[in-house]
Amino acid sequence: MKGVRRVAESITITDNRTGESIEIPLEDGGVSAAQFSKLLPGTWFFDPGFTATAACESAITYLDGDAGILRYRGYPIEQLAEESTFLEVAYLLLNGELPTASEYDVWEREITLHTFIHENVRKRFLEGFHYDAHPMGMLVSAVAALSTFYLDAKDIFDADARQKQVIRLIAKMPTLAAAAHRFSVGMPFVYPDNSLKFTENFLSMMWKIAEPRFEVNPVLARALDVLFILHADHEQNCSTTAMRVVGSSHSDPYSATAAAAAALYGPRHGGANEAVIRMLTEIGSLDNVEPFIESVKSGQGGRLQGFGHRVYKSYDPRATIIKRTADEVFAVTGKNPLLDIALKLEEIALSDEYFTSRKLYPNVDFYSGLIYQAMGFPLEMFPVLFAIPRTAGWLAHWQEMLDQDSKIARPRQLYIGADARDYVPMVGRPG
Ligand code: CMC
């Protein structure tokens, strides 16, 4: 089923210099730039940040930011978060359909059998980092390094080789993530336990100490699995765009995934939940909430982290689910003391004209950090926790792009620099 309507409507563009016109059909909510170029070759759309540019056709995720709707392959995020698991959602994103029981068994077994990383990745590579390296920096580098271990990764048009890399990447991401954390806190590496489910295994690799088998709290494992579902894809966000752009040059999926993870690292994207906790900690008490809001409005206090979104102009549906998950986690871990500050911030912002007129609502990151912190994850691990599930989404987009035989990503620019001028030897330069 195609999610977006196709209507027999069009627009007409007229070049006022020549009086020539071209009628361009509106298809799936877009107009073709190729048609536009027939009338105006050499005139470019100026769209920094791609706010009005659709760079591809995609059948993976549907997002209506005004209505607060998010669906993976047509399935509402609320239903997936309630009834599915992260691994099933990853299968859905990559294959377009929910798996049958036997397809799921094969998928889960394949992922489980590929959780180990080559000893050299850990011993020579990860352990070569400085003791205080940021785990996200380690993850980005380690994922890129994997391309040197799997030479068949370059066979991106060989279906078997491609599927193998997809499985390896999804399976090894939690192992690399946990290894980066263990190294950063000086704890020995924990090998994957293939008798555990995907999320439980990750928690075991994170927290296991000397016990023979790590006992995972089922409420916390399920909560993390739900967070993984919510973060698995989000159509053409910054990191997915990086994945598609790098992948469009036909580089291998490890290099493209490393680029996507690097894009995710920044505070405007996957680093936002870390920034939220830093902000809440800095605010410190309920009395400081109102002055902080005022400082944001006056431009002195920076942005209200975890608020606003390029696409959502109403409540982020993921934030609603996360708020519920937070209650379940806090029932086990005890309430995160920063929660009351977050709730007061939200309450004030949602009734303040500055935020309402700009349609700034809490996004997924406003509450996810509070949950991660209550579960014991250090702040530096937050973007890493985002990268683990988003790998499924990145790979789904990468596959889709390759199957569409897309062009290499290569935008144009509006040149605003100097006109042609002659080189001046250093001795002849002014000053
Ligand atoms: N706090 C205060 N003002 C804001 C905020 C904010 N969080 N976000 C946007 N604004 C204001 C901004 O100053 C501007 O005001 P004006 O029109 O007066 O200049 C207006 O709202 C529009 O902002 P923009 O920067 O043009 O919006 P954008 O679509 O380019 O930016 C954003 C989207 C997510 C980068 C931005 O809202 C932001 O920086 N939010 C805080 C960081 C954050 O929470 N990021 C996580 C995003 S969700 C997870 C993910 O997808 O990675």
Helix content: 40-55%
Spatial gap, N to C terminus: 67 Å
Counting H and I runs of at least 4 residues, what is the number of helices? Answer: 18
Bound molecules: carboxymethyl coenzyme *A
Q: Choose one word for the global shape.
A: globular
Given the helix and strand composition, which structural class is it? mainly alpha
Element-by-element helix/strand order: EEHEEEHHHHHHHHHHHHHHHHH
Put the structure in a nutshell:
The protein is mainly alpha-helical and 431 residues long.
Q: What do you see in this structure?
A:
By secondary structure, this protein is mainly α. It has a domain of 58 residues. 50% of the residues lie in helices and 5% in strands. It is built from 18 helices and 5 strands. The strands form 2 sheets. The chain has a 3-stranded antiparallel β-sheet with strand order 3-4-5. A two-stranded antiparallel ribbon has the order 1-2. Strand 1 and strand 2 form a beta hairpin. Helix 3 runs parallel beside helix 9, helix 10 runs antiparallel to helix 11 and helix 14 packs parallel to helix 17. It starts with 8 loop residues before the first strand and ends in a 28-residue tail after the last helix. Bound molecules: carboxymethyl coenzyme *A. The site of carboxymethyl coenzyme *A has 20 residues, from helix 17.
What's the structural blueprint in terms of helices and strands?
Blueprint: E1 9-14, E2 21-26, H1 33-39, E3 61-64, E4 69-72, E5 75-76, H2 77-83, H3 86-95, H4 101-113, H5 119-125, H6 135-146, H7 159-184, H8 198-207, H9 218-231, H10 238-247, H11 253-264, H12 272-283, H13 289-297, H14 317-333, H15 339-350, H16 353-357, H17 364-374, H18 382-403
Antiparallel strand pairs: 1-2, 3-4, 4-5
Helix pairs in contact: 2-9, 3-9, 3-18, 4-7, 6-7, 6-11, 7-8, 7-18, 9-14, 10-11, 10-18, 11-18, 12-17, 14-17
The chain binds carboxymethyl coenzyme *A.
